[in-house]
Amino acid sequence: MFIPHALLRFSFSSRGLLESTRVVRARPRTRLVCCALSKRRWVQIQIVPHFDPVSRGTPPCWYDTLAVDASTEVSVLRGLPYLYDSNSKRWERVWLEELKQHLSFGTDKTIIIAHGSGADALLRLLEEEAIGADVRVGVVLIAPTTRLYHAGERHPRSYRVMRIAKNVGRNKFFIVYSDNDPFASQTECEALCEDLYSCAKPVMLGGRGRFMQSEFIELRDLVHKLF
């Protein structure tokens, strides 16, 4: 009977057989672990920026310095329609559709960070657009303007909290606010957090105003908690 040379070598030493078997089997396991780690680490971050109605553009702040690590891709969705340009249902449908086209609600390991007026727009979109059931999408609202929604409404109304909670599902959802925001009082922000307590976790940072600083180190730490 023909016996391969390698097999003959193994059969003479039980110790050698165990050692060789361990080495041979370790290689495919190592490759699989490396692939799993590289797949797990890749994260896409989409920023829905605040819009400054005075300068008619996106103000300079931490958007371009949010470099988490080499495995994270950050994109800023500049040029989106401003939701408060017109208080009409027709205009509301325009900016909602534009926002819907650019956001990745169905892409796994996506973090959507919405700031200021962008946070207001994202909350409204979450009333009617659900995050995919089989994906993990983290949501971070920074300095939402008010507890009440009034773009496209004749009279301000509360956000449809039950719809938002259902559409967010089990995905992680944070609301970040400051105690000295000139546009949204701490009381308003805390009331919004209370409304969304079933799906969102509040994060209060002191003395950050409207979060227009060039660096946002706490946000980097928060991103790491999402995945």
TrEMBL record:
GO molecular function: hydrolase activity
Coiled coil segments of this chain: none
Pfam families in the cross-refs: Ser_hydrolase (PF06821)
InterPro entries per UniProt: AB_hydrolase_fold, RBBP9/YdeN
Gene3D superfamilies assigned: alpha/beta hydrolase
Domain of life per record: Eukaryota
Protein name: Uncharacterized protein
Organism lineage string: Eukaryota, Rhodophyta, Bangiophyceae, Porphyridiales, Porphyridiaceae
